[in-house]
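Sample pair:
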Amino acid sequence: MISKTSLKIIQALLELAKLPVGQTEGVVRIAQRIKAPQNYLGKVLQGMVRQGLVVSRKGLNGGFRLAKTPAEIRLYDIVNSIEDLKTREGCFMNRSTCSELSPCCAHQRWVKGKISKCCGLNS
């Protein structure tokens, strides 16, 4: 199963995906919406900037926005930027019975590498 940090950054990026193109959102508002500590989220979002998934802008109207369209962001890239997925085996949602015949709710999106809109990840 993925870490709490990965779940929070997915939630944060989903919040950013809701913004109109070019608009930014401050870490305080994002943290409030996803119920995450502000300083923690700010540091993790800065990591997403280094990974090229998020853009940050300083100043009065500063904040964060996605660096790409939501369709271009792969769930794998988000989680792999936090965790080393090459060493991982098994289900994304930690189900012992996950397979093509009995998939978890994230299976098809994970296999295709696109961000999931299931399992409560799209508040």
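Strands lie at 54-57, 63-66.
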